[in-house]
Amino acid sequence: MKLAIMQPYFFPYIGYFQLIAAVDKFVFYDDVNFIKNGWINRNRLFLAGEVRYITVPLAGASPFLKINQVGIQAGDGWRRKLVESLRHSYAKAPHFDAVNELFQRVVFSSEQDIGTMAKTSIMTVCDYLGIATKFVQSSTIYDNASLSSTDRVLDICVKEHASDYYNLPGGRALYGDDEFAQRQVALHFIQPHLIPYPQFAAQFQPGLSIVDILMFNDRERASSMICGTAVP
After folding, report:
1. Residue 232 forms part of a structural domain
2. How far apart are the C-alpha atoms of 10 and 56, rounded to whole Å?
């Protein structure tokens, strides 16, 4: 069984989804410490002629809280601003209507914490594209929060009977083949494939939120870009 474990990010870039598509089960690591200025509550789009952040404002965010303990700012004002910003910049994109509906469904959802909203953004995209990977949350199933770092990841692998563990390239600094081999788990790293596609930017801007890809590519093309079958 192929397994991956990652913090939930808000509408992440294509590499995150390529990792999801490579495995049988994906664990949202939602009960680890919140990271400020990371990707948990924000991402990048091409807005008003340049690359800018879209951000979900938080209530009481702190690196001393777990991701699933960090609340979302109350009210709809910021939600309407996000949606309007998307409309202003992407209204003429070929797949705006479908993606705008998807985006609003997430932004105006009833989730109270950023971990759940970020998870919902990812699962909504996967459902839209027909990616059938199974999702679970670390906070609800493994009862191993007392472990840290690699020991906890390995414990999850063992409990899931995983034969292979997949991660993005940043994990090379954290994990080594030997410690995984001792648990009979093969360690793999996915190299994100950032295929150029038409954008409103004069020069291709790689690594933007998946929302940008969905605006300019139909479901079949976007899915093939994620699953590795697309030809540049």
Report:
1. no
2. 8
**Residues belonging to the chain:** 232
Say if residue 102's pLDDT is above 60.
yes
| pLDDT reading at 230 higher than 80 | no
> Count of domains in the chain?
1
Q: How many Å apart are CA 30 and CA 8, to the nearest integer?
A: 7
Q: Nearest to residue 156, comparing CAs of 165, 67, 8?
A: 165
134 assigned to some structural domain: yes
**Res 232 pLDDT > 70:** no
In a domain, 97, yes or no: yes
Q: Kindly state the percentage of the chain with pLDDT values over 90.
A: 91
| Cα-to-chain-centroid distance, residue 11 | 6
With contact defined as beta carbons under 8 Å apart, do 89 and 200 qualify? yes
Task: Look at 49-53, 56-60, 159-163, 228-232 and tell me which has the smallest mean pLDDT.
Answer: 228-232
Contact predicate 13/172, CB 8 Å = no
Enclosing domain of residue 190: 2-227
- Judge contact between 226 and 17, C-beta under 8 A: yes
Query: Which H or E run includes 158?
Result: helix 149-159
Tell me, letter by letter, the H, E, C secondary structure of 182-195: CCCCEEEECCCCCC
Q: What pLDDT was estimated at residue 170?
A: 87
Residue 4's nearest CA partner among 163, 207, 110 is 163
pLDDT in tens, 38-57: 999 999 999 999 999 999 99
